[in-house]
Amino acid sequence: MGFETTDVNPTDQDFNQNSRTSSRKRRLRRCRSAPRDGDCVYNNDTKIDEPPSSPSNIPVFNDLNPSLKRVIMFLGLYLTIGTLCFYLVRNQISGHKTNGVLDAVYFCIVTMTTVGYGDLVPNSYTSRLLACAFVFSGMVLVGHLLSRAADYLVEKQESLLVRAFHLRQIFGPTDILKELRTNKLRRKCYVTFFVLVFLFLVGTFFLVTVEKMPVLQAFYCVCSTVTTLGYGDKSFSSGTGRLFAVFWILTSTICLAQFFLYVVELRADTKQRALVKWVLTRRITNNDLEAADLDEDGIVGAAEFVVYKLKEMGKIDEKDVDGIMEEFEQLDDDESGTLTTSDIVLAQTTSQISSSGSPLFTRSDLVAADIDGDGVVGVAEFIVYRLKQMDKIDQKDIIGITKEFQQLDYDESRTLTNSDIDLAQIQSSASPLFTKNDLEAADLDGDGVVGAAEFLVYRLKQMEKIDQEDMIRIMEEFEKLDHDESGALTSSDIDLAQKTTLSSSSSFKD
């Protein structure tokens, strides 16, 4: 997956370098084109309801991740400090009282949940200032829980997309639809709703039997409590009632919030399924070809394919690519469009050293970045390598796309050609998942075939893991490392980069 190296006459070297620089700038500007909205195709009958991870590990209150542990810790700290403070100013709080400590805990709960019955009211400046402080502190805790819920929704949407993409590597389109029809989210809504109804009944029963309220008034009190209205005309007045309220108010309000979270998630599930269907069924156009063809050679390699897919999946953005592209151009001393050992040696003998004095790109990096194992690192391979180092993509994304590439590579040539696409379209009863337009869009090095790395970049871009600016920055970095302008990084490129770094370091010391 590399460019062919051509001989350059010494007298024409400056002219060719200027031409390559101009061509590279034009290519980078053209790569900013984006797919049209009309290029997306959907299937109306697809249903995605099961999250990719184990359901027991996703819900906000089912796994004690570090974020939730902090909430629990802050809640305990809030109740402890609040109980102590309100106990010390208990004589400055008016209303019906039972036990000093119990009343303090009870007042903390109704303050944090913003229920505020009004049965206990601060009547001094000190107690009122404390109440104001604990009201806002309680709202901070509630806001943290809401933030955690929002993160959960975003993570679930991304997980649905990744899971659906990986299912396509294992099953056919029909099997995917069957696999993704399990509606566990709807069942979670039902379970939470029944728990909420149970808490309503328990609260009503307790108010009727212990607080001696009429049934209708007890139900009215429960509704105003769970929804945090807290009108205050009737509330828990006995010691037993307030002890029950400490646990019941907190549990019921949290359960209601959890129920609303699942309802919002269920409504958002339609858009999530639409996003998954877009990734599964989208047809590639000539606009995609221009966007994915980083080196403007008319074909898209596997690494280019990865970058393209990462952009479409939203894993990286333009700023990420710009920085990597700048680094690549610095390493690509021979402006071959690839990084080789000679490029790395040249880069290391010039100024390509980090603040600690070590090379920014070494031979070990060259080996790790060589996705297709051809001994050179192309532009797209360099992009994928840097994005992985930046934690923009993970190994799971790369593995899933690589499996899809192997399924399309019928002749096992480690490249995708028109014949491979023709065979895929003949054997597929549904809409082809990879067409000739995709082949053109994924062929980064313009050699007429799509290697594994090019395919990987292309799919990752379609999945919004990366965007155009991400690719631009990595392209610039790649061009700097590719000293021999072969369109790939080889050991000679790395050697040249290292020699350049050492030479620059020696000159600096002198």
UniProtKB/TrEMBL annotation:
GO terms for cellular component: plasma membrane; vacuolar membrane. It is found in: Membrane. The keyword Nucleotide-binding does not apply. GO terms for molecular function: calcium ion binding; outward rectifier potassium channel activity; potassium ion leak channel activity. It comes from the Eukaryota. Residues 74-154, 195-265 form the Potassium channel domain. It is a multi-pass membrane protein. Belongs to the two pore domain potassium channel (TC 1.A.1.7) family. PANTHER family: IP11374P, POTASSIUM CHANNEL, SUBFAMILY K. This is Uncharacterized protein.
